[in-house]
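Predict the 3D structure for this chain.
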Amino acid sequence: MNSKWIFGLYVLLVVVQLAVPVSQIWRYEDILQTGRVYKFRTAPIDPYDAFRGRYVFLNFDTEEAPIRPGDKLGGGPAYVELAEGEDGFAQFKQVSLEPPASADYLRVYFAYPDFNDPGRGYFGMPFDKFFMEESAAPKAEEAYRRFGNLRGETQGDAYALVHVKGGIGVIEDVYIKNQPIREFIKTIPQIENP
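Done. Predicted structure below.
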């Protein structure tokens, strides 16, 4: 009887361990299928993660917004309301302590208020890595350096396509000159792996 109880406990432990990653994968796939799509301007670099491989680190064009009047934000979780601008890119309407009732939003980490304008604040995006095949990531990084929109250059040349639902954002793809980055780097044979 004791061994049956131990075996049952073992099976339960295995099911729980499998349920956690499966539920997270399901949640991200659901967001990719049913979430609203936004384009975020980027200015990335290419680092390496020992466990997951190469990725393009996405440094977004702006990570600031007005603070909702009456909210006292310090370092910690916050919510930034999203809207689509006339140019088709995501805009941050305001950052607050609670999610907006009737608008798309992202759960972010509020870093600090703007010292020159205390009605505005800076936050960190919840997604900043786009993982790629090991051999493609260095080419993608070089393509960003040469053709992407780094600060002060033409806007809109590089962006991330992100699905947003319930405060969570999932990157579908990264684009340079309106082409998926994996396709863009194929059109530039002179880019060599560093």
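The chain has a mean pLDDT of 80.
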